[in-house]
Amino acid sequence: MSDREAELAANLAAVEERIARACRAAGRRREEVTLIVVTKTYPAEDVRILSGLGVREVAENRDQEAGPKASACADLPLSWHFVGQLQTNKARSVVGYADVVQSVDRPKLVTALSREAVRAERAVDCLIQVALDADEDKRGERGGVGAGGIEELASLIASAEGLRLAGLMTVAPLTGPYAGRQQAAFERLMEFSTHMRAAHPAANMVSAGMSADLEQAVAAGATHVRVGTAVLGVRPRLG
Ligand SMILES: *Cc1c(COP(=O)(O)O)cnc(C)c1O
Protein backbone atom coordinates (compact mmCIF):
# COMPACT_ATOMS: atom_id res chain seq x y z
CA MET A 1 0.00 0.00 0.00
CA SER A 2 1.42 3.42 -0.99
CA ASP A 3 1.65 6.20 1.59
CA ARG A 4 -1.16 8.06 -0.11
CA GLU A 5 -3.33 4.96 -0.17
CA ALA A 6 -2.74 4.41 3.55
CA GLU A 7 -3.54 8.06 4.24
CA LEU A 8 -6.78 8.00 2.25
CA ALA A 9 -7.81 4.68 3.81
CA ALA A 10 -7.29 6.10 7.32
CA ASN A 11 -9.18 9.30 6.49
CA LEU A 12 -12.03 7.35 4.93
CA ALA A 13 -12.26 5.13 8.00
CA ALA A 14 -12.44 8.19 10.25
CA VAL A 15 -15.19 9.76 8.12
CA GLU A 16 -17.05 6.45 8.03
CA GLU A 17 -16.88 6.31 11.84
CA ARG A 18 -18.23 9.89 12.09
CA ILE A 19 -21.15 9.05 9.79
CA ALA A 20 -21.89 5.82 11.66
CA ARG A 21 -21.83 7.61 15.00
CA ALA A 22 -24.06 10.41 13.71
CA CYS A 23 -26.53 7.82 12.38
CA ARG A 24 -26.64 6.04 15.76
CA ALA A 25 -27.14 9.36 17.56
CA ALA A 26 -30.02 10.22 15.24
CA GLY A 27 -31.60 6.76 15.40
CA ARG A 28 -31.00 6.28 11.69
CA ARG A 29 -29.67 3.24 9.87
CA ARG A 30 -26.21 3.66 8.36
CA GLU A 31 -27.56 2.70 4.91
CA GLU A 32 -29.76 5.79 4.93
CA VAL A 33 -26.74 8.03 4.36
CA THR A 34 -24.50 7.91 1.29
CA LEU A 35 -20.99 9.36 1.34
CA ILE A 36 -19.98 11.37 -1.71
CA VAL A 37 -16.27 12.18 -1.77
CA VAL A 38 -15.54 15.62 -3.23
CA THR A 39 -12.32 15.18 -5.21
CA LYS A 40 -11.92 18.73 -6.57
CA THR A 41 -8.31 19.96 -6.84
CA TYR A 42 -7.05 16.38 -6.30
CA PRO A 43 -5.71 14.27 -9.19
CA ALA A 44 -7.28 11.33 -10.99
CA GLU A 45 -4.79 9.04 -9.22
CA ASP A 46 -6.49 9.86 -5.92
CA VAL A 47 -9.88 9.06 -7.44
CA ARG A 48 -8.48 5.71 -8.56
CA ILE A 49 -7.21 4.97 -5.06
CA LEU A 50 -10.56 5.94 -3.55
CA SER A 51 -12.35 3.65 -5.98
CA GLY A 52 -10.06 0.82 -4.90
CA LEU A 53 -10.98 1.59 -1.30
CA GLY A 54 -14.68 1.16 -2.07
CA VAL A 55 -15.82 4.72 -2.79
CA ARG A 56 -18.60 4.69 -5.40
CA GLU A 57 -19.72 8.35 -5.52
CA VAL A 58 -17.44 11.29 -6.26
CA ALA A 59 -18.12 14.99 -6.82
CA GLU A 60 -16.45 17.83 -8.66
CA ASN A 61 -17.27 21.53 -8.89
CA ARG A 62 -15.47 22.79 -12.01
CA ASP A 63 -16.06 21.41 -15.47
CA GLN A 64 -12.55 22.19 -16.76
CA GLU A 65 -11.13 19.96 -14.06
CA ALA A 66 -13.89 17.36 -13.85
CA GLY A 67 -14.08 16.49 -17.55
CA PRO A 68 -10.50 15.22 -17.95
CA LYS A 69 -10.58 13.55 -14.54
CA ALA A 70 -13.78 11.67 -15.33
CA SER A 71 -12.28 10.56 -18.68
CA ALA A 72 -9.13 9.33 -16.95
CA CYS A 73 -11.33 7.30 -14.58
CA ALA A 74 -13.88 6.08 -17.12
CA ASP A 75 -12.98 2.44 -16.40
CA LEU A 76 -13.93 2.75 -12.71
CA PRO A 77 -17.38 1.92 -11.28
CA LEU A 78 -18.08 5.48 -10.12
CA SER A 79 -21.03 7.85 -10.13
CA TRP A 80 -20.02 11.44 -10.82
CA HIS A 81 -21.82 14.33 -9.16
CA PHE A 82 -21.44 17.91 -10.35
CA VAL A 83 -21.79 20.28 -7.39
CA GLY A 84 -20.46 23.63 -8.65
CA GLN A 85 -22.02 26.71 -10.16
CA LEU A 86 -22.75 25.81 -13.75
CA GLN A 87 -22.90 28.02 -16.83
CA THR A 88 -25.29 26.92 -19.54
CA ASN A 89 -22.47 26.75 -22.09
CA LYS A 90 -20.88 23.98 -19.99
CA ALA A 91 -24.03 21.85 -19.96
CA ARG A 92 -22.92 19.72 -22.91
CA SER A 93 -19.61 18.86 -21.34
CA VAL A 94 -21.06 18.15 -17.89
CA VAL A 95 -23.82 15.92 -19.27
CA GLY A 96 -21.04 13.88 -20.91
CA TYR A 97 -19.86 12.50 -17.56
CA ALA A 98 -22.15 13.59 -14.73
CA ASP A 99 -24.74 11.14 -13.45
CA VAL A 100 -26.09 13.74 -11.04
CA VAL A 101 -26.09 17.54 -11.28
CA GLN A 102 -26.65 18.85 -7.75
CA SER A 103 -26.50 22.55 -8.54
CA VAL A 104 -29.56 23.21 -10.70
CA ASP A 105 -30.74 26.68 -9.74
CA ARG A 106 -32.44 28.35 -12.71
CA PRO A 107 -34.81 27.59 -15.57
CA LYS A 108 -32.25 28.31 -18.31
CA LEU A 109 -29.98 25.63 -16.88
CA VAL A 110 -32.83 23.10 -16.90
CA THR A 111 -33.42 23.85 -20.59
CA ALA A 112 -29.73 23.49 -21.43
CA LEU A 113 -29.25 20.27 -19.44
CA SER A 114 -32.37 18.73 -20.93
CA ARG A 115 -31.32 19.57 -24.48
CA GLU A 116 -27.86 18.06 -23.96
CA ALA A 117 -29.17 14.98 -22.13
CA VAL A 118 -31.53 14.24 -25.02
CA ARG A 119 -28.76 14.83 -27.53
CA ALA A 120 -26.36 12.53 -25.67
CA GLU A 121 -29.13 10.00 -24.95
CA ARG A 122 -28.28 10.22 -21.27
CA ALA A 123 -30.53 10.37 -18.22
CA VAL A 124 -29.30 12.95 -15.72
CA ASP A 125 -30.49 13.14 -12.12
CA CYS A 126 -30.97 16.73 -10.99
CA LEU A 127 -30.99 18.22 -7.52
CA ILE A 128 -32.26 21.73 -6.98
CA GLN A 129 -29.65 23.75 -5.09
CA VAL A 130 -31.43 25.81 -2.46
CA ALA A 131 -29.82 29.04 -1.21
CA LEU A 132 -30.81 29.60 2.40
CA ASP A 133 -29.08 32.99 2.39
CA ALA A 134 -31.08 34.33 -0.56
CA ASP A 135 -34.35 36.21 -0.57
CA GLU A 136 -37.35 34.08 -1.46
CA ASP A 137 -37.17 34.80 -5.17
CA LYS A 138 -33.45 35.51 -5.66
CA ARG A 139 -30.34 33.44 -6.16
CA GLY A 140 -27.62 32.98 -3.53
CA GLU A 141 -24.06 34.35 -3.55
CA ARG A 142 -22.67 30.88 -4.10
CA GLY A 143 -25.43 29.68 -6.39
CA GLY A 144 -28.74 28.17 -5.44
CA VAL A 145 -32.30 29.38 -5.74
CA GLY A 146 -34.27 31.09 -2.98
CA ALA A 147 -37.11 29.10 -1.41
CA GLY A 148 -39.69 30.79 -3.58
CA GLY A 149 -38.15 29.32 -6.71
CA ILE A 150 -38.10 25.65 -5.71
CA GLU A 151 -41.56 24.70 -6.91
CA GLU A 152 -41.20 26.21 -10.37
CA LEU A 153 -37.84 24.52 -10.91
CA ALA A 154 -39.20 21.20 -9.63
CA SER A 155 -42.01 21.20 -12.18
CA LEU A 156 -39.66 22.23 -14.96
CA ILE A 157 -37.17 19.45 -14.20
CA ALA A 158 -39.91 16.85 -13.68
CA SER A 159 -41.31 17.54 -17.13
CA ALA A 160 -37.96 17.99 -18.91
CA GLU A 161 -36.92 15.21 -21.27
CA GLY A 162 -33.68 13.50 -20.29
CA LEU A 163 -33.76 14.80 -16.72
CA ARG A 164 -35.02 13.24 -13.51
CA LEU A 165 -35.93 15.32 -10.48
CA ALA A 166 -33.97 13.61 -7.71
CA GLY A 167 -34.17 16.00 -4.74
CA LEU A 168 -32.60 19.01 -3.06
CA MET A 169 -29.11 20.18 -2.14
CA THR A 170 -27.76 23.01 -0.03
CA VAL A 171 -24.52 24.45 1.30
CA ALA A 172 -24.74 25.83 4.84
CA PRO A 173 -24.86 29.63 4.42
CA LEU A 174 -22.14 31.93 5.76
CA THR A 175 -24.48 34.93 5.96
CA GLY A 176 -28.10 35.60 6.80
CA PRO A 177 -30.32 34.07 9.50
CA TYR A 178 -28.77 30.60 9.16
CA ALA A 179 -25.12 31.66 9.41
CA GLY A 180 -23.43 29.43 12.01
CA ARG A 181 -26.65 27.41 12.48
CA GLN A 182 -25.96 24.44 10.23
CA GLN A 183 -28.45 22.07 11.78
CA ALA A 184 -31.27 24.61 11.58
CA ALA A 185 -30.32 25.26 7.96
CA PHE A 186 -30.37 21.55 7.11
CA GLU A 187 -33.69 21.10 8.95
CA ARG A 188 -35.12 23.88 6.82
CA LEU A 189 -33.91 22.05 3.70
CA MET A 190 -35.67 18.90 5.00
CA GLU A 191 -38.92 20.86 5.30
CA PHE A 192 -38.60 21.97 1.69
CA SER A 193 -37.90 18.35 0.74
CA THR A 194 -40.96 17.05 2.56
CA HIS A 195 -43.08 19.66 0.83
CA MET A 196 -41.61 18.88 -2.58
CA ARG A 197 -42.07 15.12 -2.15
CA ALA A 198 -45.81 15.61 -1.76
CA ALA A 199 -45.87 16.48 -5.46
CA HIS A 200 -42.75 14.52 -6.52
CA PRO A 201 -42.51 11.41 -4.29
CA ALA A 202 -39.44 9.98 -6.06
CA ALA A 203 -37.37 13.11 -5.47
CA ASN A 204 -36.09 11.87 -2.13
CA MET A 205 -32.40 12.80 -2.17
CA VAL A 206 -31.32 15.42 0.36
CA SER A 207 -27.70 16.44 -0.12
CA ALA A 208 -26.30 18.46 2.78
CA GLY A 209 -23.28 18.52 5.02
CA MET A 210 -19.56 18.72 4.29
CA SER A 211 -16.42 17.92 6.30
CA ALA A 212 -17.21 20.44 9.02
CA ASP A 213 -20.92 19.78 9.45
CA LEU A 214 -21.77 16.27 8.30
CA GLU A 215 -23.06 15.35 11.79
CA GLN A 216 -25.61 18.16 11.69
CA ALA A 217 -26.71 17.06 8.22
CA VAL A 218 -27.18 13.44 9.32
CA ALA A 219 -29.09 14.63 12.39
CA ALA A 220 -31.38 16.72 10.20
CA GLY A 221 -32.11 13.80 7.88
CA ALA A 222 -29.76 14.21 4.92
CA THR A 223 -29.49 11.21 2.59
CA HIS A 224 -26.16 12.31 1.07
CA VAL A 225 -23.15 14.07 2.59
CA ARG A 226 -20.42 15.64 0.43
CA VAL A 227 -17.02 15.33 2.06
CA GLY A 228 -13.76 16.65 0.60
CA THR A 229 -11.17 17.90 3.08
CA ALA A 230 -11.75 15.22 5.72
CA VAL A 231 -10.94 12.49 3.18
CA LEU A 232 -8.36 14.06 0.86
CA GLY A 233 -6.75 16.72 3.03
CA VAL A 234 -6.81 20.50 3.09
CA ARG A 235 -6.96 21.83 -0.45
CA PRO A 236 -3.93 23.84 -1.60
CA ARG A 237 -6.19 26.69 -2.74
CA LEU A 238 -9.86 27.57 -2.61
CA GLY A 239 -11.79 25.36 -4.94
C1 LIG B 1 -15.90 21.57 -1.87
C2 LIG B 1 -17.33 21.24 -1.65
C3 LIG B 1 -17.72 20.30 -0.67
C4 LIG B 1 -16.74 19.61 0.26
O1 LIG B 1 -16.26 20.51 1.21
P1 LIG B 1 -15.24 20.06 2.37
O2 LIG B 1 -15.37 21.13 3.38
O3 LIG B 1 -13.89 19.99 1.74
O4 LIG B 1 -15.70 18.75 2.86
C5 LIG B 1 -19.06 20.01 -0.56
N1 LIG B 1 -19.98 20.60 -1.34
C6 LIG B 1 -19.66 21.49 -2.29
C7 LIG B 1 -20.73 22.11 -3.12
C8 LIG B 1 -18.32 21.84 -2.47
O5 LIG B 1 -17.99 22.76 -3.41
Roughly how much helix do the residues carry, as a percent range? 40-55%
Query: What is the CATH architecture annotation?
Result: Alpha-Beta Barrel
Number of helices: 9
Structural domain count: 1
Strand order of the largest sheet: 7-6-5-4-3-2-1-8
According to CATH, the fold-level topology is TIM Barrel
The CATH superfamily label reads Alanine racemase
Low-confidence spans: pLDDT under 50, at least 5 residues?
none
Function: Pyridoxal 5'-phosphate (PLP)-binding protein, which is involved in PLP homeostasis.
GO molecular function: pyridoxal phosphate binding
InterPro entries: Ala_racemase_N, PLP-binding_barrel, PyrdxlP_homeostasis
Family: Belongs to the pyridoxal phosphate-binding protein YggS/PROSC family.
Overview of the structural elements:
Belongs to the pyridoxal phosphate-binding protein YggS/PROSC family. It comes from Streptomyces albus (strain ATCC 21838 / DSM 41398 / FERM P-419 / JCM 4703 / NBRC 107858). With 239 residues, the protein is of the alpha/beta class. It has one domain (3-232): Alanine racemase (TIM Barrel, Alpha-Beta Barrel). The chain is built from nine helices and eight strands. The chain is globular, with a radius of gyration of 17 Å. The model has no long low-confidence stretch (mean pLDDT 96). Residues 38, 40, 61, 83, 171, 210-212, 226-230 line the site of pyridoxal-5'-phosphate (PLP).
